UniProtKB/TrEMBL annotation:
One of its GO terms (molecular function) is DNA-3-methyladenine glycosylase activity. GO terms for biological process: base-excision repair, AP site formation; DNA alkylation repair. Keywords: DNA damage, DNA repair. It comes from Gordonia amarae NBRC 15530. SUPFAM superfamilies: DNA-glycosylase. This is 3-methyladenine DNA glycosylase. GO terms for cellular component: cytoplasm; protein-DNA complex. Gene3D superfamilies: Hypothetical protein, domain 2.
Length: 292
C-alpha cells in the first residue's frame, strides 16, 4: 500500500495531544487512537477517499505518515490539523484568570480537520445525552458501516462513512446503536446538504441548533469564536473559572462578551485548564434504547 510521509517543523510551541484531543470520541473510538509509543492515529474519509494518518513527535518536528487513497491529502493538511492556521495571539486580554490560562496553554492550538461531515455526525449523536451514550453509538455505527482504515493499523480502526452511507443505514441498526429516532432523522436529513461547502449554514438543517453548529465548526474549520450554547456543563465551568460560581447560558455569553472573536478559545481554555464546580447529586445515567 502506498505510504506518504512528511516532516513538519512547527514555528511555535506545540502540544499535539492537547490540540487534537477534542477529536477523540471516548474510549474505543474506532476512528482515532493513542498508541503506546506516543503516536496518534486518525482515520478519515477525505475528498480523495479513505485515509489513515499517523502523527508522531520527533526531535526534528512532527512526522506525519499517511496511507490509503486519502493519505496524501491528510499529509498535506496535517499542519492545519495541528493549529498552523490558528493564532492564539489574537486573544488579547487583561483578565488575570484568562491570562493565567493562556500562559499554561502555550502549546495548545485550535485544530482544523477540514472535514465538516465527520465533525457534524458525532456532534448530532451527542445532542442532549451523556457522553457515554453518544460514544457507544459512534463506536457501534463505525464498526458496522465504516470501512477498515488503510495502513498498518489496529484491526478495530474504521474510517467514518461518507454521507451517502449514513443515509442508507436502516432504522434497526440505529436502534441497536442506542440512538433514538430523533438523532437518526437529524443525521439522515443532514445528508441533503453539502456540509463541506456550507459549514456556516448548518442551523438551517432540521434538528441542528447553535450547540451542534458550534461543536462542528470548532473542530472542522477551527472557529475560535464558536460558543456551544445549550451545553449542560460548559456554562458552569466557564462561570466557575471566570467568576468563581456556575452560570447559565445567558451568564456565560455575558462573561464571554469582552472576548468577542475569541470566545470559543476562552471556552476551550476554561474546559481544559479552568475550574470545574463541585459535583452535587447523582450523575445522569446513560439511556439505553436498545432494549425498548
Amino acid at each position: 500500500m502506498t505510504e506518504a510521509t512528511r516532516l513538519w517543523v512547527p514555528p511555535f510551541p506545540l502540544e499535539i495531544r492537547a490540540t487534537v484531543d477534542c477529536l477523540h470520541r471516548g474510549s474505543g473510538d474506532p476512528s482515532m487512537r493513542y498508541a503506546p509509543d506516543g503516536s496518534i492515529w486518525r482515520a478519515s474519509h477525505t475528498p480523495d477517499g479513505p485515509g489513515t494518518l499517523r502523527l508522531q513527535a520527533t526531535s526534528d518536528g512532527v512526522r506525519g505518515t499517511g496511507w490509503g487513497p486519502g493519505g496524501s491529502w491528510l499529509i498535506d493538511q496535517f499542519p492545519e490539523l495541528l493549529g498552523a492556521l490558528d493564532d492564539p495571539g489574537e486573544l488579547r486580554t487583561d483578565d488575570p484568570v484568562v491570562h493565567a490560562m493562556t500562559r499554561r496553554a502555550t502549546g495548545f492550538r485550535i485544530c482544523r480537520t477540514g472535514r465538516v461531515w465527520e465533525a457534524l455526525v458525532p456532534a448530532i449523536l451527542e445532542q442532549k445525552v451523556v457522553g457515554t451514550e453518544a460514544f457507544r453509538a459512534w463506536r457501534y455505527l463505525l464498526r458496522r458501516f465504516g470501512e477498515p482504515a488503510p495502513g498498518p493499523v489496529a484491526g478495530s480502526m474504521r474510517v467514518p462513512p461518507p454521507p451517502q452511507v449514513w443515509a442508507r443505514i436502516p432504522s434497526w441498526e440505529w436502534h441497536r446503536a442506542g440512538a433514538e429516532p430523533v438523532r437518526m432523522r437529524t443525521i439522515r436529513g443532514a445528508t441533503s446538504m453539502d456540509t463541506e461547502r456550507h459549514p456556516g449554514k448548518l442551523t438551517v438543517l432540521r434538528g441542528v441548533g447553535q450547540w451542534t453548529e458550534a461543536e462542528t465548526r470548532m473542530r472542522a474549520v477551527g472557529d475560535a469564536d464558536a460558543v456551544p450554547v445549550g451545553d449542560f456543563h460548559i456554562p458552569k465551568v466557564v462561570g466557575q473559572t471566570l467568576v468563581g460560581s456556575p452560570v447559565d447560558d445567558d451568564g456565560m455569553l455575558e462573561l464571554l462578551e469582552p472576548f468577542a472573536g475569541q470566545r470559543g478559545r476562552v471556552v476551550r481554555l476554561c474546559m481544559r485548564y479552568g475550574s470545574w464546580p463541585q459535583r452535587k447529586g447523582h450523575r445522569v445515567a446513560p439511556r439505553d434504547y436498545r432494549s425498548i
